[in-house]
Design goal:
This is Oxysterol-binding protein. With 137 residues, the protein is mostly beta strands. It is built from no helices and eleven strands.
């Protein structure tokens, strides 16, 4: 079996960064990327799971993202929250992001736990985020 991957390479010396992206698997779709400059390194993988619910599309982007802030000597990693695009057939198109996100700072042991609230029936919590920071030490 042979898989012909999709690869993108971009080097912008005028802007000071390089980027490599590749679709490393077609079924299931899995993509990986690495971007870097003299200030940061940003890399990760993502394999979205999609569900069509008739009038909406739910996207669950699984995978881990990591950023190294080189000047600050800090490393952070996190996973994405779910996204739902509503009224894709008819009506006013809108989207929401919801679910738990945990951002870990591997340098100092701090963890941010964020809860992206779902809009619910009346939309009161649309785009609302609650969270706290935990020190593992």
């Amino acid at each position: 079996m042979f898989f012909n991957s999709l690869k993108l390479y971009c080097s912008r010396e005028d802007l000071g960064f390089r980027l490599v992206c590749e679709q490393v698997s077609h079924h299931p779709p899995v993509s990986a990327f690495h971007a870097e400059s003299e200030d940061f390194q940003f890399y990760g993988n993502i394999h979205p799971r999609l569900k069509f619910w008739g009038k909406s599309l739910e996207i669950k982007p699984e995978g881990t993202l990591t950023v190294h802030l080189l000047k600050h000597k800090e490393v952070y990693s996190w996973t994405n929250v779910h996204c739902c695009v509503h009224n894709i057939i008819i009506g006013k198109l809108w989207f929401e992001q919801y679910g738990m996100m945990e951002i870990q700072c591997h340098t100092n042991g701090l963890t941010a736990q964020l809860n992206f609230k779902s809009a619910g029936w009346f939309g009161r919590d649309l785009h609302r985020i609650e969270g706290f920071i935990v020190d593992s030490q």
